[in-house]
Amino acid sequence: MKKITYRSRSVRRTPKRGRPKRGRIQQHPPRFRPQASRQLKPLLERIGVPKAAPFVPDPFQREAVLAIDKSDVLVTAATGSGKTWIALKAMEKLLANKGRSWYASPLKALSNSKYTEFSQHFGAENVGILTGDRKENHQAPIIVGTTEILRNQLYDAMYRGEDLGVELVILDEAHYLGDEDRGVVWEEVMIYLPARTRLLLLSATISNAAEIAGWLEWLRQVDCQIVTAHKRPVPIHPLFMFPSGEVTPLGQRREMTGKVRHFLRNSPRAGLT
């Protein structure tokens, strides 16, 4: 077996006999030194903490909360626009009237996060969680879990000839309906859910909302109102980090900056042509 001896920026392989053969020189990446480019300075200077002010819901939030009382609702709004607030208000109403809610998300991590958030808002005694790893307070009036667990509960209820026993189902990240592998789970939830149970769908990336709402109305024989927020409350500024740690704007006016494009063209791993 060959013995490998490491030296500065090179590798020497020493065979059993003969002179040592020089291996190829190892290429080390540049030292990582995080720093922001000068172009980022105006952007970074605008970052701060807004002044405290009373919360005022946006028109689309009020519209969705009112609509869920009489129909299914499909909300399409950008990330950070306040879709979770709609879910909180809908669950709050039901909790006050002794009703039950089921909040389903596609990820365990997201379910755990929402469980913590809802427990702080409604009280730990009113919130339970059901995922592949956790089962706590499953008889609570508000249940948080993965969509697969919700689908399985619907299966069990139908097998026993019983009702799921919830008045509201919230499907977060509802665009998973179009996912090639997991979309069938969202589809089955919508198909098997009793018509008496209100359905609230939340998503930031559904482009065919009218088509989905029309399909739901045909399937469930319940009106489905579309609520859309066109304004993005939190602006997006794409940035690019070089291996050295330098951070610079990715581009301007939908075009990459010359420095970024030059790096990608000359980087063997980037694959930019």
Outline:
This protein is an alpha/beta fold and 273 residues long. Helices cover 32% and strands 22% of the residues. The strands form 4 sheets. It has an 8-stranded mixed beta sheet with strand order 8-7-9-6-10-11-5-12, sandwiched between helices. Strands 1-2-3 form a 3-stranded antiparallel beta sheet, with no helix packed on it.
Helix-strand blueprint:
Blueprint: E1 3-7, E2 10-14, E3 21-22, E4 35-36, H1 41-45, H2 59-67, E5 72-76, H3 83-96, E6 101-105, H4 108-122, E7 127-130, E8 135-136, E9 142-146, H5 147-160, E10 168-171, H6 183-192, E11 198-203, H7 209-220, E12 224-228, E13 239-241, E14 246-249, E15 251-252, E16 255-256, H8 258-266
Parallel strand pairs: 4-14, 5-11, 5-12, 6-9, 6-10, 7-9, 10-11
Antiparallel strand pairs: 1-2, 2-3, 7-8, 13-14, 15-16
Helix pairs in contact: 2-3, 5-6
Question: Can you characterise this structure?
Answer:
It is a single chain. With 273 residues, this protein is of the alpha/beta class. The chain folds into two domains: 59-228, Rossmann fold (3-Layer(aba) Sandwich), CATH 3.40.50.300; 237-273, no CATH class. 32% of the residues lie in helices and 22% in strands. It is built from eight helices and 16 strands. It has helices spanning 41-45, 59-67, 83-96, 108-122, 147-160, 183-192, 209-220, 258-266, and strands at 3-7, 10-14, 21-22, 35-36, 72-76, 101-105, 127-130, 135-136, 142-146, 168-171, 198-203, 224-228, 239-241, 246-249, 251-252, 255-256. The chain has an eight-stranded mixed sheet with strand order 8-7-9-6-10-11-5-12, with helices on both faces. A three-stranded antiparallel sheet has the order 1-2-3, with no helix packed on it. The longest helix has 15 residues, at 108-122.
